Structures are given as C-alpha cells and as structure tokens.
Amino acid sequence: MAEVEGGVTAPVGFMAAGAAADIKQNGSGKKDLAILFSRVPCVAAGVFTTNLVKAAPVILSQQRVQRGRLQAVVANSGNANACTGQQGWEDANQMAELAAKALGLEPEDVAVASTGVIGVHLPMDRVRAGITMAAASISENGGKDAAEAIMTTDTYRKEYAVQVIIGGVPVTVGAMAKGSGMIHPNMATMLAFVTTDAAIEKPALQSALREAVAKSFNMITVDGDTSTNDMVLIMANGLARNPRIVEGTADYDLFAQTLEQVLIHLAKEIARDGEGATKLLEIRVRGAATLEVTRRAAGAVCRSSLVKAALFGEDANWGRVLAALGYSGAAFDPSRVDLWLGDLPLMAAGTPLPLDEEAAAAILKEKSVVFIADLHAGSAEATAWGCDLTYDYVKINGSYRT
C-alpha cells in the first residue's frame, strides 16, 4: 500500500467542492457546504449513529444506502438539522433535490449529511446558494475544499488516500472526515466520506466497511457523548476496472485491509484533534478472553476522565489505567497484569516496578502517548484512541452555541 495525494478525490472519477454559504453562526465566512460527486453511479454502503435521536439527514441517507446506489453527497456544517421536526425532514430532502438538479442526477442518488448545532432549522436560502456555488466549482482538485467545508470545531482538515494493486491494477481508496467533540464509540459527531474506484459487490463493500469502522471510528473517544448525526458513507464507482471483488477472496482481504488502514488513520486524527486536546492517547490491550471484552477494556481506559486529566498534566499516575481496566467489565486476574508506558515497564505480574520518573516524564511530554496492558486472560487484543482532557475542552463546549 502507498499513500497518495488527493484525499477523497484521489480515486478515478471523483470530484468535490466546498463553498462558504454563511451557514455557520456569526458570519464566519468559512466554507460550510460540500459536494462530493462521482462521474458514474456507485455501489454504496454506510454505517450510521446508534443514537435513538437521529437527525433528518441520517434517516434520509440510511434510506438511500439501503438501495445500494449513490452518485453524490451534499453536506453542510454549522447546523445539524437534528430535532427539527417535519421541517427538518423537508429541508434534508430539499438539499438532495437541489444538489441533484445542479449535478444532473436523480434526488435518490444523493445522500445528505449535516453537522453543527442541534435544534435549529437550516437557513435554506443560504444552503441553496451554497449548493449552487459548490456545484459550479466542482473539480478533481476540490477534495481539500470539501474536507474544510465539513469542519466544525476541528482545527485542521482530515483527509487521506492509499493506493494498492488488486487484480493486477491500481485501486485507490480516499476519504475525508470531520470530528472533534461529542466523540464516542458507536460513532459520534463525526462524518466520514470514503471513495474508491474499486469494482466491488454491495455485500462485500458493506462488510468491509462495517469491519473497518469497528476497528477505527468505533474505537475512539473524546468525551463519551454519542451524537445524533454521525455517518460513514462509502461509494465505489468501479472505474479502476479490476475484477469485481467478492467476499471470501484474497482480493477482498486486501481491499478490506486497505480500507481499514484509511479509516484508522482518520480515526486517530479525530482523536488527536479532540476539542482542546494537546495529546493523542493510545491504549493497547492484549491477552483478553474475547475481542469484545478487549475492546471494552481499551475503551474504558480511553474514556476515563482521570486518565485523560493525568495525561494533560503529564503525570505518570498509571494506577488510574488499572482502575479503568478493573471497572470495564473485562474478566482478568489483577495479579497477572503487565503494564507499560510506551516501552517503559510499570507493572509485571500485578506487581509495581520501580518507576523511572525521568523516563516517564520524557514519554508524557510527547504528542502521542501509548499505554500497553497485557491481561494474560486470553489471546484477543484491541487498540483504542482518545485524547487528554484540558481546560479548553470546557471553554469550547461551555459556549458552543453562543
């Protein structure tokens, strides 16, 4: 696999654009309306928030994905169009209709996504103007603008693309994502749009996406909140002309690994860019009885406010990691646990080791900090990602709407 430039427009046949429609509050002038488009119809799959309260665009896009076909996505930031009643549903449908008309498509071939403030109706006059502007500027070089347009409290664009040889031809997977706060497993206030020029059957695409999401976006947490608007969409247009990928083959395994690499990269970027964050926290748990238990244990450590606060303070208070493992629900014998901070051993067979304070301090000053725990209770292992808990997180979310 090789990283390539272009993000979401790196695969053959995809174009994108981002426009400033002034949807965001206070007339920021920032890009806030994005369009992603394929020259030809695509096989489509998606994974959506598990929150019972779902925004209108989530419900609409779920329906579109069930058909198994998409050709475009229109997305806005600054307004979630969630908890907005019948008007919100009509507005989401109108976004699809406007984008379809501008691109020469049927509305059913357009998915819709929104992110931002909950409980406020979309300013449809501005949305309409933004769609017109974005459609007029759409291009194969528009991935960066689109990635910028879906940002809310993100501090930088999140995009990535990888190329691999499948069936003797180059196949590319590109993606863009947004997310910074309200981030928690089962996805969060995050959006991710993935494109590929691979030829692949719908069941295989859905399976590969679900597996990759389980190892990536569902293994990050910033603040423990699960949003109303999350979605991951993937569109495959087949323009790489590779032999069609089906499940149970070596080509499927390679495609799934590639997709997993792309999504893990973006998931880590979301965790790294958590609201107010200064450090990326990585927790590797191994030696649990099952994969589900291992994921639960790793997630508990990443969610711990005490672990996150210690990380911000660069305090090697590693007992908080053991405490989180203990209440995670994972079954293990504490007298057998090994624990490391990076390559620095902290505990062996449940017994604390002399702490090299200087070495620990040097590790904790890094922008990425890794804890490794071996429970010696099985063979399953998993990794979760989070970030530190800072003063700025409270500042950002204390005045998010105002």
Structural class: alpha+beta
Largest sheet: 9 strands, mixed
Helix content: 25-40%
Radius of gyration: 21 Å
Order of helices and strands: EEEHEHEHHEEEHEHEHHHEEEHEEH
Identify low-pLDDT runs.
Answer: 181-188
Intertermini distance: 44 Å
The helix tally amounts to: 11
- How many strands? 15
> Percent of residues in beta strands?
25-35%
Task: Sum up the overall morphology in one term.
Answer: globular
Mean pLDDT: 91
Tell me which oligomeric state these chains represent: single chain
Give a structural overview.
Helix 2 packs parallel to helix 3 and helix 7 crosses helix 9. Helices cover about 35% and strands about 25% of the residues. With about 400 residues, the chain is of the alpha+beta class. The termini are far apart. It is globular. The longest helix has 23 residues, at about 250-270. About 55% of the residues are buried.
Write the layout of secondary structure elements.
Elements: E1 2-3, E2 14-19, E3 33-48, H1 56-66, E4 69-79, H2 85-103, E5 110-117, H3 124-136, H4 143-149, E6 158-166, E7 169-178, E8 191-196, H5 202-215, E9 231-236, H6 250-272, E10 280-288, H7 291-303, H8 305-312, H9 319-327, E11 338-341, E12 344-348, E13 351-352, H10 357-364, E14 368-374, E15 380-387, H11 391-398
Parallel strand pairs: 4-5, 8-9, 10-14
Antiparallel strand pairs: 1-6, 2-3, 3-4, 3-9, 6-7, 7-8, 10-15, 11-12, 11-14, 12-13
Helix pairs in contact: 2-3, 5-6, 7-9
